[in-house]
Model the fold of this input.
Amino acid sequence: MPTQHRMDTDSPYQDGSPWPCMRADVRNTGRSPLLHAGVAAEAAPPIRCWTTGNAIFSTPVIGADETVYVGSADKRFYAFDPVTGTQRWSFETGECIDSAGCIARDGTVYFVSCDAGLYGLGPDGEERWRLNLFENRGHFTPSTIFWWEGNVVLGPNGLLYAGNDDFNFYAIEAGKGVRWAYLTGLHIWAAPAFGPDGSVCVLSFDRNCYLFDRETGGVRWRTNTGNFVVSSPAIDDAGIIFFGSFDGHVYALDGGSGRVRWRTATAGPIYASPALAEDGVLYIGSSDCCLYAIDTARGRVVWSFYTGDAIRSSAAIGPDPENRAPYLVYFGSGNGILYCVDPDGRRRWSLRTVSEGNVLDSPNINASIALGRSGLAAATASGKVVYVPFRHYMSDPDDPLLDHNPRDGYPEAGLFLYSVAPGGSMSAEPTDAAAEPVVAEPSQPLSLRLLARLNGQTVPARLDPQDVEVLIDPPRPFRITLQPGGTQMNVVPEGAAPAAEEAVTVRARGRIGGQSAATVTARVPIRFLPAVDAPSIGALPDLPFRVTHMSVYDPPIVPSFDQIGIASLTMQVRIVRADEASGRVAAWGVEKFGFAADGEAVQVAMARHLFYAFGGTYESGRLVLTARDCAFELTAFPAPLDTLRLSGTWEGAEGPCRGSSLIAELDVAGRFRKLAGGSGGLARGARALARMTDLVRRWVPDSATAAQSLPLLVRFLARVVPLGVQMLRREMHGPWGLVGDDGWFRGIGSFRARADRPLDTAALEVRSFRYQPASHAIVAEIAARAGHESSLNTVVPGIAVVDTQGNEPAPLRYNTATEVKREPGRVSVELGLPPSVSAGTDRWCAYLMLDVTPLAELVF
Done:
């Protein structure tokens, strides 16, 4: 029998609050404190739905008066009243919000933002206190960003605890400041849990589970779990610690020693946190699309429930309004559906939160479920906050968005292909059973997912890339890509499509579990949306637009790493050259990170920008743009890409937002080979060392000496060097499904678009714009007129070079080939050209760009 410990019983949270923090209580059990109170018989409010300005990945918390508090990627923290259905207030911060808040005894709502701020607000939304970590740096960190992504909670001692992307875990006294901090080896996203005898447990991306003394910050023990962990730990009555890992396992650790008691495998990385029922059963979702019920005593899987999409939303244990079961389990899935299941694994009900017609937005419910007195609160990647009464499935059983099927609704046995929308939603029926054709835009990829079933259960399956045959009728050029993991294929069109419809026939072989390969054949009819009254190709250079709400739903590990970071970014795009005869276009894109509205760098040690040189086609409003050998911002760092493809149909004045799709590809194996070999290896290493030296100078705070920081740097290196070795050996990312067997990363998703405002350049003048033979470069200088010097603070100059013969961008790495220098009132930019771009031929046209506004042209 496990040793029994006395747990802290004093709650630091608001009296009467049904869900005051991310996981409901100080031990992160995910269990409603009102579980045994049942559901009141009186009438509850109807379903409520509020929309914010961007995606939501943070968990709502609920006050004693049932007010729902939640933050959004639109940089605002909201208070919604489900009783009246109104928004009570919103509070604007300087960056997106990716963490749950918590509600103190006195009603203060604490939350953190990615602007490095920890805020304390009154119930009326008025600010009571603020701590900005970036402005009050007092601790050494090797990180480049100071985003608060660790969920903030209150300890039994009244201190606030949270992890930051500066790799530190903090204990903070509200109204004063940091009590103590501990430098781990990487980011901390998990919510800490409080165990027996004054301890606090937290997990870090550095693969370690830490148990601290919550008063002093002293480490009692740490256990290396071998892989990244973002799952928040839950602690049972005996002090045993439970969590999930990106290695696909659920762990149980002894609270006294940190020793692993058991670990249980799922078929995919785990992002969600566990919920602990009083009967000794743990509930946790996995990116393998299943919710698992696990016996906490032995780690045995009792049952699993398949949803059809990755589960990142942490389950919550709450009351049964019919009193048929001791409790019900509530959770959300990546398909945008809320589920309620009985303790025996049967569905009581499920509710779709995204209409079936909305195929572009990512429907993912990443946020954990919060349970109120009369209903549950959930938030979605489409920016919606939903409040669903516990009794809704009883009071309105005919709601078309409800499903009462006690089983998961998928076939009993066989191999099947399902179509997947650009936002990630899988079709309800296999392609061969679908009554209606897939509705799409001609440039939109057709994505098909393989599903294998045995005895009513989903089993591992993968496509054989050597035995996939695709036929498009009527014929047009296309290419086939296979997602990492082998369960999804994409048919990417690359030529003009027929006006109305086509059919894609797929024949593929897949493997069901450990059995021999079986063949699946599907004919997918596609009906194209009609052409729209779109602008002419000649009008495109006058119509800049912004790409927003970007998402990559597959591989499933990508949203687990960087959902809100990608969704919060904006890319400005403008067509700079369009040829009506061929339909070819060239475009320029700029993506900024870490800049405030006045142009000053905020929240990050290194504000930066990225350039994109796109080539593509435009036909009847349908735009396809592809940038090659570029980089993509991930907020912590830019990631290299071989190609970034954006496609969509121009709708109204907004831009290519109808049928929009995003494909990002990188030959990871090829990049590693180039990095390891080649004559430029030493030079690249020297440049990397120089950049690292510069970074270290930025990392050491003004208030700390190098001697004080040295022990922390040694500790950091002791954590991160073994991690790097594991990465190189594929011991870390092997289970993630990030890279395919062919060595390629292929991300697929969607975006939105909206019209951009033209840049006012009246106060600026181009001093020079010329080809410089000595350095084989294009150089330019832009100056601001007297009194308008600040107009250059917020803009980024760049130079785009286009081959006039094919209307294609010049093949070069614009981000590394461009050098920008700023002086008061003026800015200069230089673009180094490769040998393949030869001057004196009048073949090349250079465009001097300010953000995405062209200032001058140069034919050379």
Notes: Helices lie at 392-395, 557-568, 668-676, 681-699, 706-728, 814-817. Residues 706-728 form the longest helix (23 residues). Residues 1-8, 679-693, 695-705 have pLDDT under 50 and may be disordered. The first strand starts at residue 48 and ends at 51.
